[in-house]
Amino acid sequence: MSDYPMGRRAVLHGGLGLAVAGAFGVFRATPALSVDTPTLTVATPTIAGTSTWGARPPRSPVTVLSTRPTMVIVHHTAGSNSTNYSQAHAFALARGIQNYHMDNNGWIDSGQQLTISRGGYIMEGRHRSKEVLTGGTRHVRGAHTSGQNDVAVGIENEGTYITASPTTALWNSLVNTVAYICQQYAISPSRIYGHRDYNNTQCPGDRLYAMLPQLRDEVAAKLGTPNPPDPVTWPLVKQGDTGQRVRSVQYLLRQHGWTGVTVDGIFGSVTYNAVRAFQSSRGLAVDGMVGSQTWPALIVTVRSGSSGEAVRAVQSQLASKGYTVTVDGAFGPQTESAVRSFQSSRGLTVDGVVGPVTWQHLVN
Fold first, then answer.
1. Pairing state of beta strands 152-157 and 64-65?
2. Helix or strand run (H / E) with residue 210
3. How far is CA 313 from the centre of its chain?
4. 108, pLDDT greater than 70
5. What are 72's strand-pairing partners?
6. If you ran DSSP here, which 8-state letter would residue 290 be given?
7. pTM (2 d.p.)
8. What confidence tens digit (pLDDT) does each residue in 62-104 have?
9. Distance in angstroms (rounded) separating the CA atoms of residues 346 and 362
10. β-bridge pairing 71-76 and 152-157
C-alpha cells in the first residue's frame, strides 16, 4: 500500500501481527493496577475521529465493554519511515491500516484504538475508541495483542523502529496521548508495555521498545506522580543474538530433549530450528523467537535436589551475575544459597525455588 506496506507486518511481528484476539495466558510479574492520584492535569490531545479521516463503517458493531482498560500497549506499524509529515498522509495511513485489517485480516474494523503518524497526528483507530476514552469508564475491545484486547489500549506508531528512533513529533504525541489515557483510566505509568511483552514479535522494534522506560518516566512527569519501577517482562531472544540469555535458551532446549543444541551463547541456525521444533511440539506460534509465549513453556521449576540442564541454566545465570556457584547441573546447598541471595536482592519471596517469577528476573 503505497509508502506503508502493511504486508511486512506479519514478518516483523513474528507471524502474529495484530493477531485475532486469542486467549493466550502468560505469567507476568507486574506492579499493582492503581495509579497515585495525579497532581497535574493532562490536556485532552487532539484526536482525529474516524469520520474526520474518512474511515469505512465497521462490518459489525464494535464491542464496548463496561470496564476500564488496565494497560497501554505500544506498537509500530512495521511500514516505511515516511518523511511525509502532513495531515493528509496521516489520514491516508489510517485508511490504509483499516483497509488492511478489514480486507486482509477479515476483521470488523481497525485493530488498534489509536494511531500516531510520524508527523505527530493522532487518529482514532477502531470506531468509538475516542468516545469511550473521553468518558473514561468503558473500553472498546480491539484486535492488537492476543490475550489482552479486553484490558489494553493499543497505540500504533507509524514506522519501523528496530534501529531507527521515532520522530520528535511522534514521540511528543505518544507521551501526551499515553499520559491522557493513564489519567482517564487511572492506569499506572508502570503499566505501559510493548507488544512483544505479550506476544512473540519484534514489535514495537528494538529501538522503540528500549525507549519504553523513558516513556514511563515522561508520562509519570506529565501526571505529576512518582516515577514507577520498570516492570519485569520476558525478554525477546532471536536468531543473531548472543550472550547469557541465549545460553539459558540452549540449556532449556537440551532439558526438553533437543540435545543436539550446543550451549555456546550463539543463536544460530541449530538453535533457531530447535526453538521452532519446540514451539511446534507445544502448539505455540512457530516463529523461532523466544518471547513471552515461549519462555513460560520452556522454563522448568527447579529446587534443592533437582538436576539437569535447567539447573545448569540457573547456575549459569547466577554465575554471570556474580554469585559463587559451580555450573554442574546439581541443585545443592551452594546453588540454593545463591538463589536465595538473588531473590532477596530482587525483593522476591525468598524460598530457594526457581519458579516463573524468579526465572523472569534471572533472564532480565
1. unpaired
2. helix 206-210
3. 24
4. yes
5. 153, 192
6. B
7. 0.72
8. 999 999 999 999 999 999 999 999 999 999 999 999 999 999 9
9. 10
10. parallel
